[in-house]
UniProtKB/TrEMBL annotation:
Chain spans, region VHIID: 249-314
Region (Disordered): 76-110
Superkingdom as given in the UniProt entry: Eukaryota
Pfam families with a match to the protein in the record: GRAS
Sorted UniProt keywords: Nucleus, Transcription, Transcription regulation
Organism: Glycine max (Soybean)
Record-given protein name: Uncharacterized protein
Subcellular location: Nucleus
One GO MF term attached to the UniProt entry: DNA-binding transcription factor activity
Family: Belongs to the GRAS family.
Length: 542
């Protein structure tokens, strides 16, 4: 990552041996191995009264988007597809479309945090660069127990010097140093970095790392200001209306392929698995608007010999009801109308409860039905054994296995934030969402107010939850595919190999997006990536 343009030091500020800029470059290059370009810093002052001003919304897994007028995924081409952006090309700028950009997201699954010794060493160098070796030793600013223990004197006497040189700092490096101080319960140092440095470096309308930094800073503040279940609630949330939330989610749905990747791959897998079945039942554990099944309904309508009957059970929760503007009867009526227009016999059944509350009595499977189960970005919300002895994550998988489904599709973020210690989780969140914000950045101008609102209402809440919350209040608990594979195997599932037609369907989808998206078929699953960072995986099980 490149640092911001150099600015001359203020008079009277003496840096011993090497400039702070170099220290932070080393912090970045040694701890992240990331070549992303930070760009020019956008400064604004964060006051104490502004600590909890982040506007939030339900988690992205409650995204509701309309896929109407969507031809079958089998016919997706480089022309405009049902899942392609409607007019989104107008948001692109020539320099942003280039595949030769400087974004370089870290490789998924590789933690950018070592055992902590490298960070301690670089922090020590930073102290010396600011104070000189004699003053640094005499003021007690030594690195002890993984952080800047005893560094309150640094905060007292030298934050003005640090603040005057903010433009020379690397934002990712500062975020890590601040997070390490929070992890070590070094409150004076953490507050010093937040109030004197980070508040001047982040911006919701800046480049990707500046925008992400604004939400990470909000999470760090919330973690310091509160504890337990007060952390998440301490945010001064302004809930958007249903119409507003739908519009925000539609923006992200159109400019990024993450949800389309989930829906198209699930549709393709289920259609193949049900090719010879006359009665099909789909249980969708995140039904949302339900329009993701339009593709499958259209494909079934064109089946030689006539369409099979289709029954859909939709699992829902209170957050989804708000975003949709009503209960599951809305979904059922819309899907029924669409199926009728296609000539497909259809029935809808609702299960208006959270996924972790589902028990056998909520699910009805009739004799003679071929069952498919879809988990689109939802399993990571299920609390596991690290949260509760009930372990709903594994309990739900075992319950589904007892239903004897013909196929189960799972799409999840390829990230590891479930059981990691706080600092490791912070760095993983930083790396993962840097890639996500980069992918958003190439699709819309940075000053686009709708894009800013979409990020604030539909992404920021997840980030704050992962950083600020612990225990049952931390609902964003991602795991890598390897861990999901272990859980599914223990529940009795066997992985299904994805056919080439599923791969082709996603390849055709990605033709409508930046060339920096990557698709890899490995170990029987599909990996969707941004540059060299895996973002999501799609797999099938039986």
């Amino acid at each position: 990552m490149q640092t911001s343009q150099k600015h001359p030091s203020s008079a009277g500020v003496h840096f011993y041996h090497q400039p702070v800029q170099g220290i932070y470059q080393m912090l970045q290059s040694n701890l992240c191995h990331d070549s992303s370009s930070q760009g020019t810093s956008v400064s604004f002052e964060t006051c104490k009264e502004q600590y909890f001003t982040l506007e939030s919304c339900p988690a992205p897994t409650t995204c509701f988007v309309d896929c109407d007028d969507s031809p079958s995924y089998a016919s997706v081409s480089s022309k405009r597809t049902p899942f392609s952006p409607q007019g989104s090309q107008s948001c692109y700028s020539d320099h942003q479309q280039s595949s030769d950009n400087t974004y370089g997201s870290p490789i998924s699954g590789l933690s950018s945090v070592d055992d902590g010794h490298e960070l301690k060493h670089k922090l020590r160098e930073l102290e010396i660069s600011l104070l000189g070796p004699e003053q640094s030793d005499s003021c007690g600013c030594c690195v002890v127990k993984g952080g800047l223990q005893g560094s309150s004197q640094l905060a007292k006497h030298n934050w003005d010097q640090i603040a005057e040189n903010v433009a020379q700092f690397d934002l990712k490096g500062v975020l890590r140093v601040c997070a390490q101080a929070v992890s070590d319960d070094d409150v004076p140092t953490a507050r010093g970095w937040m109030d004197n440095v980070l508040g001047k470096m982040v911006s919701v309308s800046g480049d990707p790392i500046q925008r992400l930094g604004a939400y990470l800073l909000e999470g760090l503040r919330a973690r310091l200001e509160s504890s337990g279940n007060l952390i998440y609630k301490s945010l001064n949330c302004e809930q958007p209306t249903s119409k507003e939330l739908m519009s925000y989610m539609h923006i992200l749905y159109q400019i990024c392929p993450y949800w389309k990747f989930a829906y198209i791959s699930a549709n393709a897998v289920i259609e193949e698995a049900m090719a010879n079945e006359s009665r099909i039942h789909i249980i969708d554990f995140q039904i949302a608007q339900g329009t993701q099944w339009h593709l499958l309904i259209q494909a079934l309508a064109h089946r030689p010999g006539g369409p099979p009957s289709l029954r859909v059970t939709g699992v829902d929760d209170s957050q989804s009801i708000h975003a949709r503007g009503g209960g599951l009867q809305i979904v059922g009526e819309r899907l029924s109308d669409f199926a009728r227009s296609c000539g497909v016999p259809f029935e809808f059944r609702s299960a208006a409860i959270s996924g972790c509350e589902v028990v056998r009595g909520n699910i009805e499977v009739l004799p003679g039905e071929a069952l498919a189960v879809s988990f689109p970005y939802v399993l990571h919300h299920m609390p596991d054994e690290s949260v509760s002895t009930e372990n709903h994550r594994d309990r739900l998988l075992r319950l589904v296995k007892r239903l004897s489904p013909k196929v189960v599709t799972i799409v999840e973020q390829e990230s590891n934030t479930n059981t990691s210690p706080f600092f490791h989780r912070f760095v993983e969140t930083l790396d993962y969402y840097t890639a996500m914000f980069e992918s958003i950045d190439v699709a819309c101008p940075r000053d686009d107010k709708k894009r800013i609102s979409a990020e604030q209402h539909c992404v920021a809440r997840d980030i704050v939850n992962m950083i600020a919350c612990e225990g049952v209040e931390r609902v964003e608990r991602h795991e890598l595919l390897g861990k999901w594979r272990s859980r599914l195997s223990m529940a009795g599932f066997k992985q299904c190999q994805l056919s080439s037609s599923v791969m082709v369907a996603i390849q055709n989808l990605l033709k409508e997006f930046s060339q920096n998206y990557r698709l890899e078929h490995r170990d029987g699953a599909l990996y969707l990536g941004w540059m060299n960072r895996h973002m999501a995986t799609s797999s099938a099980w039986r």
